[in-house]
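**Backbone shape codes:**
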Amino acid sequence: MLPVLLNFGFLKIYTYGVFLVLGFFWAIFLLWKNIRLTSFKEEDVFDGLFLSMFGSLFFGRLVYVALNFRDFGFSILKFLLINGYPGLSLYGCLFGGLLVLYFYTNSKKLNFNDLIDYLVTPVFISLVFSKIGAFFSGVEVGTKTNFLLKIKYVGFDGARHLVALYEGLFLIIGLSLAYQILFEIRKEKYYKGFLLKFFLWFFALTTVLFDNIRDNRLYFQGLSLDFLVSLIILLTISFHFVYYFRNGILSFIKYYGQKIFETVRSRSKKKVGRGEEK
């Protein structure tokens, strides 16, 4: 692990911070490319982006402090000093940012569902950089393991899972799929706002898959809050997708069910024919 990338004595450059900055600039670049495909004004979109980022940080911090109120109390300084008292709720960040963006688009009379589709891929790419940076800096720690792929974290005993790296690589798959879906939405194959549901579904799936091998999980009443919220989101949106794609799913089942039936029937006839020959 490499928490500090460069140490000049009077100045330290932290690995995680570098990856966050890289993720931010790549996300901004991708958003700029996406917006060029639309009729949205760049200044309106980027104003909404920066406002939603501040809202994301505020609500992410607020939810974390509320869930760990014993450690923070009513101290405003502890709330503001993230370096001294670190901690953010990722779902607080996501939903807080979406809430601020929703109110911003309403105030500007912009179509939220139309705009959000173009923001999803930049969010994906920022999360990818965040997770990979968390792995190299040792910010997110996995549970103990004897698995072939394992690593030792500074300050933690035993070999542990590469959980942040797993999540980062898995999110790359989500980024690739989201980018393809964006162009399908532009062709009106899917409805506006579909990509937001896909993002929430895929992010929830990522959390459900890997939360169990994360050491520094956020708990509430003894349960992993991220896992519980993710499971609810995953099941809810999965039911929505099943209903939305019901015709395609039924056609798929009918087509391959018929194929299987015909294969079984033809094999049965061959067996019967061989029996008669004997």
